[in-house]
Each structure stands twice: as C-alpha cells, then as structure tokens.
Amino acid sequence: MKYLIVGIGNKGEEYAETRHNIGFKVAEKIAEKIEAPFKSSNFGLLAEGKYKGRKVFVLKPDTYVNLSGNAVKFWMQKENIPLENILVITDDLALPFGSLRMKMKGSDAGHNGLKSIQSQLNTQNYPRLRFGISAEFSEGKQADYVLGKWNEEEKEKLSERIEKFSQASLSFVFAGIQNTMTAFNGK
C-alpha cells in the first residue's frame, strides 16, 4: 500500500517559521521519523520511505499554498495512490492553537491550499489533518496573521504539538483514519 502525506506551506526562508507553514513542519517531522530525506523533485521536495511495511511519500509542495493542488494531483497520479490514502496537513484559523482535527472529507473552510486541491482533484472527499492556529487578528489582517511568526507562548508548545501531529499522521498510515480520529482528535 502507498500513502501520500502532504504538508501545505510556502517555499522560501521568509515563510519558514510562519503559521501558514505548519504543514511543512509536520511533514519534516514525519520524514525524520521514517528516516527519509527530502529530495528535490517534481512540484516540490519529496521524502520516500516505509512505515510498518507501507510505502510513504511525504511531500512539501513548492507551488506556494494557493497552487498545492497541482503537486497533489501529480504525485497521486504518478504513484497511483488512491484518494483515501492521501493525507493533507494544513493550518486552520477556526481551531484554537495546537488543536488537532482529522477528517475524512470536508469543505476547504476558506483555505486556499485546500481550494486548490479540491479544484484539481474534483472532490472534497480526501482526508485532511488540521492544525489549529487560532484567529487572533483584527479585521482585515488575516493574511498578515497566517503569514506571521509564532508568538513566544506558541513557540514553547510548538515542538510537542508537531510531535503529536506526526504521530497522528503515521497512525493514519497503519491504523486507518477511523481509529486515528478516535485516538487523536481533540488531543
């Protein structure tokens, strides 16, 4: 069985430590856990490894968030990975900081990366893992907030939350989405 885990984020040093790039951070932790280095490839950086006998591709698209669907569609087709074996990791303004929510399907919730994926795949029926970044910004400042850096309080908790999200992602691979949602949602 093959799995594609996609961390959503923006390429470039200026975005590296921003809220919008949490998908990249979780993807990096997953690749570290399966001992798979990232290599430059089509549409981004790809780490290829095995976890509990299953082939796992971890992707950090270099298309910027708004065009993430191009990378997801390419790798899904190239490796013949079924829709239910794709997990997209993204930030979510509607959840409190660090909250974990895995879903089998759902709307894009206003996230441009998810909009792009849904447009390219022609469906919203794919698994996703949302990392809560909260919505502590004034009206009209959403872009500044998601592209802003973590505050000190968030930084203190970030590595523990990234670890939890990487565990949930790998649980998705070996235990399936239902068991993973039961074990990790809200944790």
TrEMBL record:
TRNA binds at Y15, Y64, N66, N112. Its main location: cytoplasm. The keyword Cell membrane does not apply. CDD domains: PTH. One of its GO terms (biological process) is protein quality control for misfolded or incompletely synthesized proteins. The active site is at H20 (proton acceptor). This is Peptidyl-tRNA hydrolase.
